[in-house]
Design a protein that fits this description.
By secondary structure, the chain is mainly alpha-helical. Helix content is about 45%, strand content about 5%. The protein has a two-stranded antiparallel sheet. Helix 1 packs antiparallel against helix 3, helix 3 packs across helix 5 and helix 5 packs across helix 6. The longest helix has 21 residues. The chain starts with a helix and ends in an 8-residue tail after the last helix. The N terminus is likely disordered.
């Protein structure tokens, strides 16, 4: 039982560290405003740039993931990426220790980073994701309490 708690605490702390690396200035802004995300007042970022700015801190530059205080799964050679909707869902809503990016990234950026990861790092999944695919899966922006 103690081991399970320590692992969850480690994942939580690692997730917190990654969130800090990504920048959390949006947390103090009004949840309904563009100031919260800043995503509406800028041009969409390319997939490789999104990966470098938001994903690389946890999943590593080579996308092979990391283990230590938490477990950050490898994206390199990951068969779960074969279903294009899976990484879109995880990016939008988070999973385990990974935070959600719904409200932080534009539909075009999520599509771009999913396509980037699915076509790099040893992955060769041919069916691209579009911004419309992401928009269809996007729900309301989660609000932190």
């Amino acid at each position: 039982m103690k081991h399970r708690f320590e692992r969850r605490a480690g994942v939580w702390l690692a997730s917190l560290a990654c969130s800090a690396l990504m920048g959390t200035a949006w947390a103090d802004a009004d949840p309904g405003s563009d100031q919260r995300t800043g995503m509406h007042d800028r041009e969409p970022l390319a997939g490789d740039v999104v990966y470098q700015q938001y994903c690389q801190a946890c999943h590593m530059a080579d996308a092979k993931g990391a283990a230590g205080a938490g477990l950050f799964p490898a994206l390199a050679g990951n068969p779960l990426l074969a279903a294009a909707g899976y990484p879109v869902y995880v990016i939008l809503y988070g999973q385990g220790g990974m935070p959600w990016f719904n409200g932080m990234l534009k539909d075009e950026e999520i599509a771009a980073v999913v396509n980037y990861v699915r076509s790099h790092f040893g992955n060769q999944f041919p069916d691209p994701v579009s911004a419309a695919d992401v928009a269809q899966m996007r729900g309301p922006v989660p609000v932190e309490q």
